[in-house]
Amino acid sequence: MTQSICTYGFIPVRTEPSEGAQLETQILFGESFDILEHQPGWVQIQCHYDGYRGWIDSKLVTKMEERDVEHWNRSSGHIVTKPFVKVIRESDSTPMLLSSGSRVVFNSDDRNAIRIGSDEYFWQGTLPSGRFDLEEVARGYLNAPYLWGGRTFYGIDCSGLVQNVYKAGGVFLPRNASQQINYGEVVSFVEEAGTGDLAFFDNEEGAIVHVGLCLGQGRILHASGSVRIDAFDHQGIYNKEERAYTHHLRVIKRIIQTSE
């Protein structure tokens, strides 16, 4: 077996084959990956979506044929846009929550069912409509706690938030803010920033250390402590509780055209 698909709400990906190692990122339900190396209790993987590498618990790897993974990736699917949706796993009738950014393919005889490998997952509630509202998806993460390497409402980091929101709209962005800054066109003035534009922030050494989603009218949605909305201007993000600027603005980039 050289490839697989995540069949859990998410799988933690760590920098080393140890439960105490730093969280690097998370694989979401329906995302596929290559299996690169085996160690006792662990496998090294590379995510197909963004190329990220790391180590995951071998017990969380679903055995699959490579052709089934390739067929899944070629199939037309939907990206979950709500903070959570529930599915029921057929094999043991247990519920599971999928988070925003998960990928589902309704590929079974039952129109509400998702088949991955030998198991099926039955969607609960209204089926995805395919409609995408960037601000609505972004606001669905409000109050999620900040978590380095996180990509779900249980915990998310600044670049994971941006990546997931754009993924829901069918637009690829890489995993890290330092990579995301290379995408899009420069917006010259803060006053011209519209909904969905990305604002990047640097430290004293000039390294990109933060990214957020502009909402227009001098507002930004970003993950800092938690996912929140703050004011920002040509200097950076202003935190009214701290009565101080917390992030220094480097540049604003426009990825897609959106109506405000």
From TrEMBL:
Pfam families: NLPC_P60 (PF00877), SH3_16 (PF18348). It comes from Marinilabilia salmonicolor. Residues 128-252 form the NlpC/P60 domain. Keywords: Hydrolase, Protease, Thiol protease. GO terms for biological process: proteolysis. SUPFAM superfamilies: Cysteine proteinases, Prokaryotic SH3-related domain. It comes from the Bacteria. Coiled coil: none annotated. Belongs to the peptidase C40 family. One of its GO terms (molecular function) is cysteine-type peptidase activity. This is SH3 domain-containing protein. Residues 1-65 form the SH3b domain.
